[in-house]
Structure prediction request, 586 residues.
Amino acid sequence: MNAELDAWISEIVALCQPQNVHIVDGSEEEANTLIQKLIASKTFTPLQRPGSYLARSNPDDVARVEERTFICSERQEDAGPTNNWRAPKEMRNHLIELFQGCMQGRTMYVVPYCMGPLTSPWAKVAVEITDSPYVVVNMRLMAHVGKAALEKLGASSFVRCLHSVGQPLRAGAKDVSWPCNPQQTTIAHFPETGEVMSFGSGYGGNALLNKKCFALRLASCMARQDGWLAEHMLIIGVTNPEGEKKYFAAAFPSACGKTNLAMLTSKLSGWKVECVGDDIAWMHWGEDGRLYAINPEAGFFGVAPGTSMASNPVAMKTIERNTIFTNVALTDDGNVWWEGIGVGKGIEEPQHLISWKGVDWTPASSEKAAHPNSRFTVSISECPILDPSCRAPHGVPISGIIFGGRRSTTIPLVRQAKSWQQGVFFGASMTSETTAAAKGEVGKVRHDPFAMLPFCGYNMGDYFAHWLAQEKPGRHMPAIFYVNWFLKDSETGAFLWPGYSENMRVLRWMFDRIDTRVGAEDSPFGYLPCVKDIARDGKESEATLHKLLSIDKAAWHKEATELQEYFKRFGNALPDILQSLASPGQ
Ligand code: TSX
Ligand code: MN
Prediction:
């Protein structure tokens, strides 16, 4: 096998003292055994959907915990002003104490996994050690796990991901269906040594260390070193009626409908969208000077509430079978339910459910039936509009990069950057309004540069510089756009843009802009569409389109002033050009 892996396994066995060790091979029999075990421990409830299960977490373990997430670089300035930092030695000592004996009475699973197509030169093998069988069955859907990953690894080094739910099972004690340790939850990244250590949570990005911890935080550090990009972006292929195809990568903060855009159903005849990925893109420059993207993930880990035949019929088809649901509600006939599931299908709200907390729920209940951060985990293979080049070893060539945010005022429906530098500025200036889906005040504007605020593994100012440095002679730079589907009428408060499948009209404009088949209005804020190029058979009035495509100079001035203030927090690490681009036309 791999001597480094053997040594690490021995080290972790001595530290965590598990009852058994199981090296995950990735076989079907193994998955079935794990599922039977999860049913026996009441972690899984089988559903009346083929190959699908419901898990309910501990109510104190329902989301990523940013305040307990740390970047442990040797120098604090390498973590930058947007990350929590601890000195690596100090954090390691703290974690070794926590991990001491933490797997007593449990099985320790060793999960070798590959991020990216097994045949890809850009794919990376890592290993997660975990005491959670729930994590193992989710990882099986989200990455290539087991034998194939080990074979690809060979004798090489690998990123070490150590995870424990942090609740040892004492002799004779009865286990709970969702062991965890919320009081002591800690997620630590060691970029210089290529390690993640996560203690106390079994949920999502806290526990599936391949996703946010490795494929974004650590990978962003590796990408900076080696001249590529690890980004929080969906990847789609767009085909026009002539059969020409272009790929786009797009970054949005949470609650902007990223998965919905990744699976868009076109309403424009002859136009088609296909899905490569909905969350993460690893992008490298090809020998032809173009930027190529792979999706390092093998599955979707999507938010369930709001997903419906109206908002995302492709997702609804994707999750018909072989899906793990976490923290959704259970219907009396053994099916799943969540807030918004029936929109567009006329499904009535049920009179009785079992809520995500496992208790009876009726329409009179004051709490939601599904948790707002409830999830589905499903293999990407189940997606009916999977792009044929989804697993292309060298990735797909990116023609356009889309940034976006949820803003009810100020930011127009779509703009194109006039240069790579202005495009990087678009990414750095990303903001979004908070929604009821996250805790805290609703409607507050938050900065989330490149949608990477919680996921950049190093100093965000250095990250901006890394993006600027991508522009080099001989490279064919993708066009960069900024979209806002969420403008509201200042008088009525109604959304001005229909969104969803109608966003295809905006994608068409971007597609045609890339080879300048359509014109634009030049402005200091970027290229803006002419009304006629977005309009469709009187769907919106000319006045509405005007509101969507114009810039209110006074509001923009306020926006720019606030942005200049925000940029100050990056200090010396902020590239000068970004500060000067924050004041256009001055
Ligand atoms: O996902 C969304 N998208 C992108 C779709 C590809 N949502 C949902 C956001 C929460 C996850 C949207 N919501 C979008 C959108 O484009 N737009 C809106 C706002 C909106 C909501 C309801 C309507 C219109 C716009 N309804 C009617 O016009 C009838
Ligand atoms: Mn994400």
The chain has three domains: 3-43+66-226, 231-295+390-581, 300-382. The radius of gyration is 24 Å.
